[in-house]
Structures are given as structure tokens and as C-alpha cells.
Amino acid sequence: MRAVVQRVSRAEVRVEGERVAHIGKGLLVLIGVSRQDGEADAVWLAEKLAGLRVFPDDAGKMGRSVLDVGGAVLSVSQFTLLGDCRKGRRPDFTRAAPAETALPLYERVNAHLREKGVRVETGVFGAHMDVELVNDGPVTLWLDSRV
């Protein structure tokens, strides 16, 4: 699984002009599922996200997790993270898992985060979404369960 993680002061998702999810302080996580991914990848990603220390501690260093600061996760499915742009000018998405495979794994990440005590808001799987965020820092990280 691939994820782009952004530390945010706020973020929201709109579908057809209607706000469907929003958070204050926390992490906006864009998640892509590949054809090779399975349950272990979903659990790995959720564990990594719950414990990722990207929020400042008392010394001003990145020493606190989303759980430590009482933040939330806004989870958004994004198959385009698996796009291969090495050849030509149009991305190739053949590495992305089909929806019937990707949706349960995406939902597993969210469920595992909730089991860890993280408040999770989600976008709408497969929908055209408008994602708005204020990147705090800016802090942006890339995670991949296969690298």
C-alpha cells in the first residue's frame, strides 16, 4: 500500500459540493492499494500511521503521534498513487488494485486505526472528491508497505 501523509491543522472532503468529512489537527492520508497488497499491508500501514511521530513535543521536535496529540485522520482513497508515469505521457494504472480488492483493504486500514483509538473520517471510495487542507509545517511523507 502507498500513502501520502500530510500533517494538517485542518482538512475536509467534499463530494458534489457537500462536505462529507472534516478534521482539525491530524493527518490527511491519501491511500493507494496495489494488486499485490493484502491484509498484512493494511495492518502495517495503520500501525505506522497511528504511531508516526510527526507532531511537535515540548522540545519542538517531532516526538508525538496523532494519538498523543488527540488528533484525527482523514483517510482518502486514491488509486492514482499507483500510477506509473515512466513511459509516455499518460499514467498507467495497471498496478492499482481493482475496486473489489482495494475497498476492503482501504476499509481495513481505517478499521484498524479506529481499533487503536484514532478518530477516522473518510472520503467516499470511488467518488470524485474535492480535498482541501492546510498543511501544517509543511510536513508531507510518503509511506509504502512494499519498499
TrEMBL record:
The keyword RNA-binding applies. InterPro entries: Daa-tRNA_deacyls_DTD, DTD-like_sf. Transmembrane segments: none annotated. GO terms for cellular component: cytoplasm. Belongs to the DTD family. A Gly-cisPro motif from one monomer fits into the active site of the other monomer to allow specific chiral rejection of L-amino acids. An aminoacyl-tRNA editing enzyme that deacylates mischarged D-aminoacyl-tRNAs. Also deacylates mischarged glycyl-tRNA(Ala), protecting cells against glycine mischarging by AlaRS. Acts via tRNA-based rather than protein-based catalysis; rejects L-amino acids rather than detecting D-amino acids in the active site. By recycling D-aminoacyl-tRNA to D-amino acids and free tRNA molecules, this enzyme counteracts the toxicity associated with the formation of D-aminoacyl-tRNA entities in vivo and helps enforce protein L-homochirality. This is D-aminoacyl-tRNA deacylase. It comes from Kyrpidia spormannii. The gene is dtd.
